[in-house]
Amino acid sequence: MKPAERNVDVDKSSFLIHTPSAVARRTFLYLLRAGNFCYESGYLLERSSFDSFLVIYVKSGSLDFNLPQGRFHASAGQFALVDCYAKHVYGTDEATEALWVHFDGIMARAYFDFITGKLGNVFSLHNPGYAANRLRQINDMAVSPSGFSEPRMAKCITDVLTEFASESEPGAPARQSRVIEDAIAYIAAHLDEPLTVKELAEHAYLSEYHFIRVFKRETGLTPHAYVIDARLHTAKYLLVNSDATLKRICERCGFSSTSVFGAAFKRAVGSSPLEYRASNRVTEND
C-alpha cells in the first residue's frame, strides 16, 4: 500500500497492514504493520494511542521522538522502540528513510520493558546489521505475493527483540557471526548475480573495510575469494549431476563467460570443466 500521510514520499514509500489470526494473537509475537518510508522535512505524527509496539530503524537522516519517557533523537544507524499504547509523537526536519514494524503479542510488553529498561527508547547496537536485516526480512515477507507463515514471522520479530535484549551482554563476536551467516546465505541465493563486495557490505549494513575484515575473520576467506569458491563448488555439482551446458552453468554460477569460467576452474581444480565432468560423472551402471 502507498501512504496517505503528509510529508511522506509516496513514490519511494510503501507499507502493509496485516490482520493476525486468532492463533497468532494467543501464541506468538505477531505483525500488525510494516513499511519502508522516506520522510520529507516537516513530517510529524502524533497519536494518543495505537494498540501496538513499534520498532524503527533509521537508515538515513534522523527522527525526533516525544514519548512519556522523555525526548529522544535517533540518528542514522540507530533504533527506536516505542510503546504506542501511550501517547507518542515523532517527526523530522530533514529527508529521512526508515524501516518500521508495528507488532504485538503476549510477550511484547515484557520485551519492551526489559529492553528499554537497559537501553532506553532510542539506542545504537554494537553491530546493527543483524537486527536491520531481520527488519528488512520482515518487510519482504509482509509484501510477498504468496503470503507468509505467522510462526516464521514471529521468529523474525523475536530475533530483532532478542538482539536488542542481549546487546549489553558479552558476545559481540557471535552477533557478527550471525551477520556473516546472513551474508553467506545471501551469496548462495544470488550466486548468478555479480555480488560485489560493496553490495554485500551494504546488505550487512557495514562499511566495505569492516565487512571484509569481519568476513575474513569468520570464514578464513575474503568475500571475493568466498564468492569464487562458492561459484566453483556449485559448478562442480552441476558438471557431475546434470547435463547443463557450460554456458548454462556459467549463467547459474555467475561467471561472465565460458572462457572466464574455464580459466578459473582449471586454476582451482587442475583440469578443465569438461575433463572434470568426464572423470567424475556417475552413471546408472556404476
Automatic annotation (TrEMBL):
It comes from the Bacteria. PROSITE patterns: HTH_ARAC_FAMILY_1, HTH_ARAC_FAMILY_2. SMART domains: HTH_ARAC. The keyword Transcription applies. Residues 181-279 form the HTH araC/xylS-type domain. Keywords: Activator, DNA-binding, Transcription, Transcription regulation. PANTHER family: HTH-TYPE TRANSCRIPTIONAL ACTIVATOR RHAS-RELATED. This is Transcriptional regulator, AraC family. It comes from Bifidobacterium panos.
